[in-house]
Amino acid sequence: MLRVSNITVRYGQTVAVAGVDLSVANGEVVALLGPSGCGKSTLLRTIAGLETPASGSVCWDSLDMGSVPVHKRGFGIVFQDGQLFPHRDVFGNVAFGLRMQGVSRGDRAERISELLKLVGLDGYEHRKVTQLSGGEQQRVALARALAPRPRLLLLDEPLSALDRELRDQLADDLARLLRSSGTTAILVTHDHDEARRIADRVVTMRKGRVTS
After folding, report:
1. CB 74 within 8 A of CB 17
2. Number of H helices, E strands in the chain
């Protein structure tokens, strides 16, 4: 279980996140909903360990994650642009986290095959990611983030760069994917429909604070 307690993040004199409390149960998908600049992405990056809070704590179960490096938190992250490795094919991208974990080649291949079927890219193992559509690239990014079986998946507006029809399709696919894998996740979005399509619970933010 994730527990965020009284998190405040400042950039100089600007308060980006102001005393936020948030809990996410195991297997729950929570959407952080709000307009641009409200602090939702900053909060997500703080949970990931990419930002250092001025005060407050991020805990997983009873462990304070404050001193835990990003790569040791066991959290997966998907950004708006996917941030795939352009020099690697689909297989190489999805395999990255598994290789870092020391997973054997045979087990890596089995896990990657399972995930590509799950995200609708069965048979794409040797495609160059630079030849994929935007929607396909985001599916690869999701598979890569899920491959090491993260205890928490953080999604920072992963569908916002796509057109409306594709966003709706991928939102439904993402909701199915998260539930079928039992993944605990936080989704950042400014889209009300997207939040309700994907999440079990919607938390709204305004001016750095949780309002509901």
Report:
1. no
2. 6, 10
Strand bridging mode 63-64 / 75-78 = unpaired
Q: Could you tell me the two tokens for 17?
A: 């996140």
DSSP H helices in 6-63: 40-48
Q: What is the DSSP string of 70-133?
A: GGGS-EEEE-TT----TTSBHHHHHHHHHHHTT--HHHHHHHHHHHHHHTT-TT-TTSBGGGS-
Residue 32 parent element (H or E): strand 29-33
Among 157, 118, 145, residue whose Cα is nearest residue 37: 157
**CA dihedral of 134, 135, 137, 139, whole degrees rounded to 10:** 170
> CA–CA separation, 115 vs 55, rounded Å?
38
pLDDT digits (tens, 9 = 90+) for 132-183: 998 899 889 989 998 999 999 999 998 887 888 888 888 888 898 899 889 9
Pick the closest to residue 189 from 50, 48, 79 (CA basis).
79
Predicted model pTM: 0.91
**Whole-number average pLDDT of the chain:** 93
Look at 43-57, 101-115, 166-180 and tell me which has the smallest mean pLDDT: 166-180
Strand order of the β-sheet with 201-206 is: 75-78, 152-156, 185-189, 29-33, 201-206, 209-210
The three-state secondary structure class of 13 is coil
